[in-house]
Amino acid sequence: MIDYSKPDPRALKGEWQAVVQTWDIEKIRQVHNDRMARDKPVCEKVSGYHHLPGLSECHGETLDVVCGNGEMLLGLFKYGRITKGIGIDISDVMIARAKQTAVNVGITEVQFIRIAFEHYEVDSLFDTIITNDILEHFFSVPWALDKLYSLIKPGGVLVGSVPIGQACDNKTHLHYFEKDDLLRLFNPMFIKIEIHKLYENHLYFACWKGNNETIINGG
After folding, report:
1. In which band, very low, low, confident or very high, does the pLDDT at 54 lie, cut at 50, 70 and 90?
2. In the prediction, which pLDDT does 217 show?
3. CA-CA to 50 of 20 to 30 Å: which in 82, 159, 191, 196?
4. Statement: residue 102 has pLDDT above 90
5. Among 91, 93, 53, 99, residue whose Cα is nearest residue 73
6. Nearest-angstrom CA–CA distance, 64 and 121
7. Under 8 Å CB-to-CB from 210, ≥6 apart: which residues?
């Protein structure tokens, strides 16, 4: 059984091993800036992402963890799937691009904040949290899921995706997942779980929190 509380030894290669062992947030930010600057430009328009499993469940106040250029969160708002959005990302480059994309598409109701999820604190809870291709980057997946769960309102949903196994050659991936791995991680926490395979190399999921949870942090 895979231990997701620490990085998979197969993922620790070269100089990245030292970065992970010290969990140097500034070094991780620099790597993220360099990679995302190549892959995620400022957008002139956004879509509703109707084709992605799980995103049809997005609703209400929504947090996008590692929002990139903001295209997905802005698209969900533009097409009426969510009522309010906050996007966070460790990359100053991506947050600047997300803000510019918001200007380009004329949306002022979605907020973007440059901060690592590890440092993100908020008093309110969310109806939806999005984690697209994020879980594989955390030092400890159980820690990340516990924090994500604590930020979801009762009856709310966690939606997201992960690459299947080692399908993506990305040195910042610290974990590898198959469907059974996700089910084992999600089952103790959520009352309903849906997982779909898409594009041959990704798993998309939607996980619902029970309605009888006690709200501690507001909401």
Report:
1. confident
2. 38
3. 191
4. yes
5. 99
6. 14
7. 154, 155, 190, 191
| Amino acid found at 51 | H
- 3-state SS, residue 65: strand
Cα–Cα distance between 46 and 33 in angstroms, integer?
22
Say whether domain 11-208 belongs to CATH 3.40.50.10860: no
Tracing tokens 């930010």 back to the chain, one arrives at: 29
pLDDT tens-digit series, residues 20-37: 666 666 666 666 666 666
Confidence band (pLDDT; 50, 70, 90) for 17? low
137 near 171, Cβ under 8 Å?
A: no
Contacts of 214 (CB under 8 A, 6+ apart): 154
Domain assignments of the chain as residue spans, ordered by start: 11-208
The answer to whether 85 and 77 are in contact (CB under 8 A) is: yes
Q: Which two tokens stand for residue 84?
A: 């309010």
Closest CA to 154 of 190, 186, 182: 190
State both tokens at 74.
């802005």
